[in-house]
Design a protein that fits this description.
The structure holds two protein chains of two kinds. Chain A contains five helices and 17 strands. By secondary structure, chain A is α+β, with helices and mostly antiparallel strands. In chain A, strands 11-9-8-7-5-14-15 form a seven-stranded antiparallel β-sheet. Chain A has a four-stranded antiparallel β-sheet with strand order 13-12-16-17. In chain B, β9 and β10 form a beta hairpin. In chain B, the strands form two sheets. In chain B, strands 1, 2, 3, 4, 6 and 7 form a six-stranded antiparallel β-sheet that branches. Chain B has a four-stranded antiparallel β-sheet with strand order 5-8-9-10, covered by helices on one side. Chain B starts with a helix and ends with a strand. Chain B is 24% helix and 26% strand. Chain B has two helices and ten strands; from the N terminus they run αβββββββαβββ. The chains are: A alpha+beta, B alpha+beta.
Chain lengths: 370, 199
């Protein structure tokens, strides 16, 4: 339909002007080009906003995962148990050489154990300090994990699901490595190996708990395999876990006689960074602690970084560990100077422009006897 | 005409973007459902069963039986000795139906959890799925500590075989390969932690 414009003339009134002027092809194309340029700028702004949102979101998600892992670690460690009893001592041994031997003393003993040490010492066949930084810990706790299928009750029911206090060994350590064993099989060829520091949990079921097995040497169960069925990654980008142990004031340092009960000989509180309840050996601290003692408190420090920082380090280092802890100069061998070690790690991470978070807590172990 | 040409050039990209967005949304909802099941088991301190229902799409004549719905059921103990050994189920949350056109791949490469006899196929005798009268399901459980029983069913810890994949229904077929557009949800067979993978 044609449209007409009218202009007012002096004499005759309105005069028909002709058809409405429309846009030419050049004008349309020009306006579309301008529109495209505006859309390009808007897209770039949106892309930038999306990147920022993704970075912030990944930081929140990453440290949420680290916090959940820390909660899991502290919750399970708090359940550590080590019931003790007084056993006869025959010289330096708990077993007599012949039936007529007379006991020479009483020794505190416990069949369940608690072992904390450098990860390189406690994790069997693990690797160097850069691959296994910080400390590892293994203990017994009434967690109730079993895996015997039930004979009835539907697919997937467990026979001992209702026994919530079954004893389990439980261990934690940090290791650097790839996720090639973890990635879905169908995607393994499509994804690059991701080399990260990860917190692992050693969680064997109660069916294979050999702590009370008299056929093996005491404490033989207290070793963490570096891989296997029961080694499960709990969280990624956990750079290290550090443990400090505090014990109750010790009993008399010499073995008490049968006529005299044990008494506390010192009021100082022993603390260490490593302890084995089966041998009574402790290191990285001071004080006296004997056999079969559960720490009354444990200081846990967990150092985490975000995925963006880990990704950047992986691109720089490839499959080699970034050596964050060893490069910082922090040794974490003496709990009294852990603050200084943590400060060294902070400085190192800031120098490397790593976005990090340090979780720290002192946990009381209720099962510890005084 | 020029605008029409531009629209014709852009349209295929828009359709594929829309399909990818639907797949991502379904995958995120599925991952959230699995996390919810784990959380419910922990907070209620009792086992929770996650069921994956297979049935043909009632809105598409001639469609095949594919996994199209997920439910979270409470495992209640038997009411009496007479029914000992059986369990009565109670849905804890509304059933999550996958959007039309999106299914969980049943091929071994796509979803090893559904492969073989790892999870037993059972009939939907409780008629949980109202949309179909002949649905079947496979299920696993989260124990009261939040850990799934997948490691027990598998016989060992195999996280690289403990996952399921959402794909477009038209992309499923005899091929065992993962299609270009997919959303994989991995369930750690020991801890129940979910991880997602997307192209």
């Amino acid at each position: 339909m044609k449209t007409y414009m009218f202009i007012k003339t002096q004499c005759t009134g309105y005069r028909k002007l002709g058809r409405t002027l429309a846009f030419t092809l050049i004008e349309v194309l020009l306006s579309m080009v301008i529109l495209a340029m505006i859309m390009l700028i808007v897209t770039q702004v949106i892309g930038q906003a999306q990147k920022s949102w993704k970075a912030a979101s990944s930081r929140v998600t990453q440290f949420r995962e680290a916090r959940a892992a820390f909660d899991t670690l502290t919750r399970n460690l708090r359940q550590a148990t080590l019931p003790t009893y007084n056993d006869w001592l025959y010289g330096t041994s708990r077993t007599p050489t012949k039936p007529t031997d007379v006991p020479t003393g009483i020794q505190k003993s416990g069949d369940l154990g608690f072992v904390a040490d450098r990860s390189t010492t406690l994790v069997v066949g693990g690797g160097s300090g850069d691959i296994l930084p910080g400390h590892a810990v293994i203990f017994q706790a009434p967690i109730g994990l079993s895996d015997t299928p039930a004979s009835s009750g539907g697919s997937g029911a467990l026979e001992y699901a209702k026994l919530k206090s079954l004893l389990n060994a439980r261990g934690y350590f940090v290791r650097f490595g790839s996720d090639s064993d973890y990635v879905p099989v169908a995607l393994a060829s499509k994804l690059q190996d991701k080399y990260r520091y990860r917190l692992y949990e050693y969680r064997p079921p109660t069916e294979i708990n050999s702590a009370l097995d008299t056929d093996i040497a005491a404490g033989d169960w207290a070793k963490i395999p570096s891989s296997g069925n029961y080694i499960v990654p709990v969280a990624e980008n956990i750079v290290a876990v550090v443990i400090g142990l505090s014990f109750a004031a010790p009993e008399a340092s010499s073995a008490p006689s049968l006529a005299r009960p044990a008494t506390a000989s010192s009021s100082s509180v022993p603390f260490f960074s490593a302890y084995n309840s089966y041998t009574g050996k402790a290191s990285g601290g001071s004080g006296t602690v004997g056999l079969a003692q559960l720490p009354r408190a444990a200081q846990l420090i967990m150092i985490a970084m975000d995925e963006d920082s880990a990704n950047r380090l992986a691109q720089q280092n490839g499959s080699a560990p970034p050596s964050i802890i060893s490069g910082s100069g922090a040794s974490f061998t003496d709990p009294t100077v852990y603050d200084q070690d943590v400060e060294r790690v902070r400085n190192a991470m800031q120098r490397l422009h790593i976005n990090y978070r340090i979780f720290s807590a002192i946990i009381m172990l209720p099962a510890a006897s005084t | 005409m020029i605008v029409g040409l531009i629209v014709a050039a852009v349209a295929p990209m828009v359709f594929s973007t829309l399909a990818a967005t639907r797949l991502t949304s379904a995958g995120e909802t599925l991952a959230a459902h699995l996390s919810l099941a784990k959380q419910l088991a922990t907070s209620r301190n009792e086992p929770v069963e996650v069921r994956f229902y297979s049935y043909p799409d009632p809105e598409v004549p001639g469609s095949k039986e594919e996994v199209r719905a997920v439910s979270i059921m409470r495992v209640t103990p038997a009411a009496s000795l007479a029914t000992a050994g059986t369990v009565a189920m109670e849905a804890l949350v509304p059933i999550f139906y996958l959007p039309s056109g999106i299914v969980m791949g049943k091929a071994t490469a796509l979803s090893p959890i559904f492969a073989g006899s790892l999870l037993t196929t059972q009939s939907d005798n409780e008629h949980v799925i109202k949309r179909s009268g002949r649905a079947t399901y496979k299920a696993f459980r989260f124990q009261s500590d939040g850990s799934p029983n997948l490691a027990t069913l598998m016989g060992s810890y195999k996280p690289n075989q403990s996952y399921l994949t959402l794909v477009e229904e038209k992309a499923t077929g005899a091929t065992n390969d993962i299609p270009k557009n997919f959303y994989t949800v991995q369930i750690d067979p020991s801890t129940g932690k979910t991880s997602t993978y997307r192209p």
